[in-house]
């Protein structure tokens, strides 16, 4: 067992912070693409739903026939459901999930981190 000097401890903290910020930064492009895809598919689904609902034929035919008559809405809706089953709801917030989990672990050491991964050192509690 070897005790860590203050300089070594600072080096380890800086290395951890560097790696954490790098990891969160690397997630940003993919997260942005997933968010854009979710927005596009959501807008397509909403537009298709609006057209489906305002179509007077929708009320006159069966549910499945009305879906068959509106393939844009049907495909958009199926795509949106598929994206949620594939976990898009987790992928659009992945950096926040990583930061939150790190905060949970770091709290035991009187530390925290922001959403970019920068460490926040909290003052040590005074023991009386």
From TrEMBL:
<keyword id="KW-0472">Membrane</keyword>
<protein>
    <recommendedName>
        <fullName>Nuclear envelope phosphatase-regulatory subunit 1</fullName>
    </recommendedName>
</protein>
<keyword id="KW-0963">Cytoplasm</keyword>
<keyword id="KW-0812">Transmembrane</keyword>
<dbReference type="InterPro" id="IPR019168">
    <property type="entry name" value="NEP1-R1"/>
</dbReference>
<dbReference type="GO" id="GO:0031965">
    <property type="term" value="C:nuclear membrane"/>
</dbReference>
<feature type="transmembrane region" description="Helical">
    <location>
        <begin position="36"/>
        <end position="54"/>
    </location>
</feature>
<keyword id="KW-0443">Lipid metabolism</keyword>
<keyword id="KW-0539">Nucleus</keyword>
<dbReference type="GO" id="GO:0005737">
    <property type="term" value="C:cytoplasm"/>
</dbReference>
<feature type="transmembrane region" description="Helical">
    <location>
        <begin position="66"/>
        <end position="88"/>
    </location>
</feature>
<comment type="similarity">
    <text>Belongs to the CNEP1R1 family.</text>
</comment>
<keyword id="KW-1133">Transmembrane helix</keyword>
<dbReference type="Pfam" id="PF09771">
    <property type="entry name" value="Tmemb_18A"/>
</dbReference>
<dbReference type="GO" id="GO:0071595">
    <property type="term" value="C:Nem1-Spo7 phosphatase complex"/>
</dbReference>
<dbReference type="GO" id="GO:0006629">
    <property type="term" value="P:lipid metabolic process"/>
</dbReference>
């Amino acid at each position: 067992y070897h005790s860590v000097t203050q300089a070594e401890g600072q080096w380890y903290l800086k290395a951890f912070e560097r790696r954490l910020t790098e990891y969160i930064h690397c997630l940003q492009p993919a997260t942005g693409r997933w968010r854009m895809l979710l927005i596009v598919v959501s807008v397509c689904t909403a537009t298709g739903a609006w057209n489906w609902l305002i179509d007077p034929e929708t009320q006159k035919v069966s549910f499945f026939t009305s879906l068959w008559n509106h393939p844009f809405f049907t495909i958009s809706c199926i795509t949106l459901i598929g994206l949620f089953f594939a976990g898009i709801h987790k992928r659009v917030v992945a950096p926040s999930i990583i930061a939150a989990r790190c905060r949970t672990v770091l709290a035991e050491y009187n530390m925290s981190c922001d959403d970019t991964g920068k460490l926040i050192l909290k003052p040590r509690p005074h023991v009386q």
